[in-house]
Amino acid sequence: MLIEKPTIIKPAGNKAKIIEEYIGMVNSATTEVSIAKMKSPSGWEEPPQTPEFNEYTLVLKGELSIKTEKGNFVVKAGQAFIAAKGEKVQYSTFGSEDAEYIAVCVPAFTEDTVNRAG
Questions:
Q1: Burial readout 47-83 (b: 16 or more C-beta within 10 A, e: otherwise)
Q2: Domain spanning 7-114 has what CATH number?
Q3: Domain ranges (residues) in the chain
Q4: Across residues 96-111, what is the average pLDDT?
Q5: pLDDT, tens digit (0-9, with 9 covering 90-100), for 79-92
């Protein structure tokens, strides 16, 4: 199956973030995995979540701040992070520049399984 272009997904958070889903429930009706390219502006923060999927994040540009019950992490361009299924996690971009990263979720991301805090 050729994926000609992504679908833009509505983001959560305090600032406009761009989510381009290439593979997943919305763009390709794929349930096993979702792959999306993210662009988050400096100062962006989303609500904490406790997802029902593993999330693998590869930072391409800038820095991504990731807060978990195990600690706070700054993931820089060229680094990756794994957030385990059922782990409370919160993503943000507090560096001076925007961040660009790839998110892979197994099984695929859905609004029903991300479990965002109110």
A1: ebbbbebbbbbebeebbbbbeeeeeeeebeeeeebeb
A2: 2.60.120.10
A3: 7-114
A4: 96
A5: 999 999 999 999 99
